[in-house]
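Regression check, magnesium ion case 447:
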Amino acid sequence: MPLNLQKAVCTPSFEEAVRLILDAVSPLESESVSLLDSLGRISAVDVSAPWSTPRCDNSAMDGFAVRAADCEPGAALPIAGYMPAGATPIPAVGPRCAIKIMTGAPIPIGCDAVVPFEAAEEMNGAVRLKKPVSPRQHVRFKGEDISAGDTILAEGDIVHPVHIGVLASFGKKEMVVYSRPKVAVLSTGDELVENPEDLVPGKVLDSNRWAIAAAVRDCGAIPVMLGIARDDPQSHRDKLQEGLCADVLITTAGVSAGDRDLVRDILAELDVRPVFRGTRVKPGSPTCFGLHGNTKVFSLPGNPVASLIAFEEFVKPALLKMMGHQRVLNPFLPAILASDVRKSPGHAKLLRVRLEQREGRLWAWSAGKQDTGMQKTLLRADALALLPEDRVSFSAGETVSVQMLNARLAKVMEAVIRCTGPTSSYSAMETGAAGYGMPNAVKTDCA
Ligand code: AMP
Ligand code: MG
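Current build output:
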């Protein structure tokens, strides 16, 4: 390894590791996709309205188009025409008559108000008005909704159904969005089998592949399954080489200090430049990150809990940034610890916790045994509480930072806290000049 690269390899703190990763990735190229396929993707362009809407004054109700000045209470106006939705506009209408009109149909020239059916009585070809009529009532005026040039979507916005609808209303058939990364997913280890029939003592089913591929898909990227590399150098070489053709390569296991942990050595042999090897956070401390041309390489730990948490913290923000997302970090919210917690020094800890909301404040309980063999604790957990590296004991009642594991829950809780609870200096985190929004502003001393 060249000297300057060796210098760059370090064991960063949690915050530094995230920063090193985000500094190394940027949005992929953009591509044009069909309008519907742009749903959930990130707009790579600003899109503005090509014309103003509505394109003409039209009725907001089913009823009668009238001239308000003709409509003293009790007036009876002859019905002089009929305007269903989609009909060609009637030429100018004379005074003291009504046009039967349906919602969306153009208001005939000469009329300035619509009387809904409920406020009128129709008999013998005339309409009697039950209530006073004010000018402009129940009329949607030309250009009052979206004006020509108004921004519909800005670069970096997530495409939601409402955008698709508005874009369709302007005749858009395609959208330019950021491409989605292809993410190769590789499990490693001689103990792994693919089918329950092969589960002889000593073997385990390869579950990481599915969890990681699901997590990749969940954030909108494209998983590519590479299968299993066995604990021999050639098997690793073949699979890793294949994975280096993808935008991102994720491996699990074989990255710790075991004498059959081959991932780091074979990646180095294949010219993957390490950015860091290991980080000071648990679970996830063996995580390594490296670069090979444009391919980003994440080596995650083998334990299913550790690999998923490492994915959440390190890989997901990178994938989101590659897909053009502006907000790539899961925000930290304040929560009150419900019981005392101890941890060892020298690394931060991501404690799996359950949350409860009481009087507008979040309380965090340990979700169970915290060792990384305990999948049950992750199944139960609502959030991860970040316990900082420099402390070992935390008392019930003190405020810690928690990160929701479920995006929907995260949004709800964030809203609850914004409305009722104490504001947090890091509750709304965006990537940007100020950094990546980690709880403590970080300066990287690694690279
Ligand atoms: P390692 O990092 O290779 O020491 O693996 C740590 C632990 O994770 C071991 O108990 C492995 O059996 C387990 N493990 C590794 N890879 C997988 C996988 N793909 N699916 C399920 N468990 C795994
Ligand atoms: Mg292993």
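Comparison notes: Residues 304-322 form the longest helix (19 residues). Residues 189, 253-254, 258, 302 surround magnesium ion (ligand 2) (CB under 6 Å). No diff flagged against the previous build.
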